[in-house]
Amino acid sequence: MRTRLARLYQKGDLRIEADTVALPGSGQVLLKMAAAGICGSDLHYYQDGGFGPIRVREPIIPGHEASGIVERAGEGVDLKPGTLVAVNPSQPCGHCEYCAKGLPIHCLDMRFMGSAMRLPHEQGMFREWLVVPAKQCFEVGAATTAAEAACSEPLAVCLHSASRAGEIAGKRVLVTGAGPIGCLMVSAARYHGAAEIVVTDLADAALERAEAMGASRTINVSREAAALAEFETGKGYFDLVFECSAAAPAIRSAIAAIRPRGTIVQVGVTGEIPIPLNAIVGKELHIHGTQRFHEEFAAAVELISSREIDVRPIISHSLPLEEATTAFTLAGDRTAACKVQLTF
Fold it and tell me: Strand 217-220 and strand 286-289: pairing?
């Protein structure tokens, strides 16, 4: 059996190719892929050849947020043909030191689909047909679209970020950066009962989507930088910040606008940047990193299926696999696009 796929050879060199697909073995399913989102990391691979120390060192099929329809199930699999599933790209080993401690996110032998962290690289889901372990497939609700189901992975990231924040209910929350993750972070904070959610970004289109996802107020800091000053008086206003931009100016603003002993959850990633350490010390701030997810993937599928969290406002474009290069270019234009997905 043959499948079409998108394979990245180096920065800017994305090719549509064909490859073979095996039949599913015991515990596996063959999926006809339905939708797959372009993530920020995919975009970094395409635009820059990687991010931070993670570089594309050999050809890689990107894509780690996707949905597909069960075509054939291997032995011992209950999923029926025709079932739409969200695919969890995370594959912890289950037996290393951190898996044994109940911290599979920090697995020492983690395999994460579409990631260039390991060598050989872990191949991803920008392909028409895919064989995966059935345990990575989560059935979605009957009314859920393939595009919505493909948002399960980024929503899981945000649900895990929310779990790192402590109590959210009743808190004043700042979200810096209103890309797909920032917008989903708004929805997660709203779901957990935040009293107020202010969102900052440089693009009006992004902020409009943040409002659709539940923001109380949005601020375009490219032309309203002074608007943040009101939140800096009296040692700060916000109880909690989800920093989704990884931009040094946004991080500095967040530290200035948060109250003493407030919590900053660093969601966005970048290389090394300077931070005002004296302000962190002086305000006795709590700063938490966050990455990936584990049990939150199943929770994300449930919330999307019930539309308790409606992800549809962030899905801006769907393009066929053959137009993958166009899709990546579009995904890099924040004035026009939010979540760009490939369809198969």
Answer: unpaired
Distance of alpha carbon 177 from the chain centroid: 13
Please report, for residues 38, 83, 282, 302, 322, the alpha-carbon distance to residue 338 in angstroms, rounded to integers and kept in the order given. Answer: 10, 27, 37, 23, 20
pTM of the model: 0.96
pLDDT, residue 135, reads 97
| Residue 53, pLDDT score | 85
Report pLDDT for 52.
Answer: 80
User: What CATH number was assigned to the domain covering residues 2-151+311-343?
Assistant: 3.90.180.10
Comparing CA positions, the residue from 321, 305, 341 lying closest to residue 139 is 305
Amino acid of residue 45: Y
Residue 45's contacts (CB-CB under 8 Å, 6 or more residues apart) are 8, 11, 51, 56, 60, 62, 116
Domain ranges of the chain: 2-151+311-343, 158-289
Q: Are 150 and 65 in contact (CB under 8 A)?
A: yes
CB 20 within 8 A of CB 68: no
Token readout for 233 is 């008086």
**pLDDT number for residue 51:** 86
Instruction: Decide: helix, strand or coil at residue 63.
Output: coil
Q: What are phi and psi of 22, to 5 degrees?
A: -80, 165
Q: State the Cα–Cα distance between residues 242 and 70, nearest whole angstrom.
A: 36
226 or 327, higher pLDDT: 327
**114 by DSSP, 3-state: which?**
coil
**Residue 62 corresponds to which tokens in the numbers above?**
């990107």
Spatial distance between the Cα atoms of 179 and 43, rounded to a whole number of angstroms: 13
What is the CATH number that goes with domain 158-289?
3.40.50.720
d(CA 335, CA 329): 12
- Could you check whether the bond before residue 120 is cis, i.e. omega within 30 degrees of 0? yes
- Reading phi first (left if > 0) and then psi (alpha if -120 to 50, else beta), residue 114 is in left
Question: Rounded to the nearest 10 degrees, what angle do helices 152-163 and 180-191 cross at?
Answer: 60
- Please provide residue 157's backbone torsions phi and psi, each rounded to the nearest 5 degrees: -55, -45
CA-CA-CA-CA torsion sign (108, 106, 104, 123) = negative
Residue whose structure tokens are 């992800």: 311
